[in-house]
Amino acid sequence: MAKLSLLAAVIISSMHTGYRRAGIAFDKGENTVEVDEIQLAKIEQDHNLLVQSTESIEPGADSSSQGNVDADSVDKSITGPSVDDVTLDLSHAPKELHAIIAAVHAKQCQEPLTRKPNCDEFGGLKVSGADRDAAWAWYQDNVINHVPD
């Protein structure tokens, strides 16, 4: 049987800490994990998880990077699904809203949103009205209505 190559992936989870997919337990927010192609495919199908970036791991490389990383050290440009060819960039978004904004983006990629999502439409993520409103306003200003320079 052929050995699957490993990828370093940054995954944003909108679910609670301990949420599991493809044999991996995720923390809420950003996670850096090592996955194979099969695991990555399962993660990409989960609407509660957003693949932020992936990078091939060289054979023999140090494999101790699995787990959470400091959010300031992570590239915030999501290379997953985009809306009208606009890439989601969370580098200027309030950190506490990253998971909510990512969930809004995932919903928008599935089907264009015609209204602000209700607080109970975030797949188990507990979202306050104020946080939902702030995330929705940021998403509209920076993604939907954003005009590139």
Secondary structure elements and their pairing?
Layout: E1 6-13, E2 19-21, E3 24-26, E4 29-36, H1 37-45, E5 49-56, H2 98-110, H3 129-144
Antiparallel strand pairs: 1-4, 1-5, 2-3
Helix pairs in contact: 2-3
Helix content: 25-40%
Identify the overall geometry: globular
Rg over alpha carbons: 16 Å
CATH architecture of the largest domain: 3-Layer(aba) Sandwich
Taken together, the total number of domains comes to 2
Count of beta strands: 5
The CATH C-level name of the largest domain is Alpha Beta
Largest sheet: 3 strands, antiparallel
Widest sheet, order of strands: 4-1-5
Would you kindly provide a written description of the structure presented here, covering whatever features stand out?
This protein has 149 residues and is an alpha+beta fold. The protein folds into two domains: 6-73, Ribosomal Protein L9, domain 1 (3-Layer(aba) Sandwich); 95-144, no CATH class. The chain has helices at 37-45, 98-110, 129-144; strands at 6-13, 19-21, 24-26, 29-36, 49-56. The strands form two sheets. Strands 4-1-5 form a three-stranded antiparallel beta sheet. It has a two-stranded antiparallel sheet with strand order 2-3. A hairpin with a 2-residue loop joins strand 2 (19-21) and strand 3 (24-26). It is globular.
Which key phrases capture this entry?
Ribosomal Protein L9, domain 1, 2 domains, single chain, two-stranded antiparallel sheet, 149 residues, three-stranded antiparallel sheet, alpha+beta, Mu-like prophage FluMu N-terminal domain-containing protein, FluMu_N
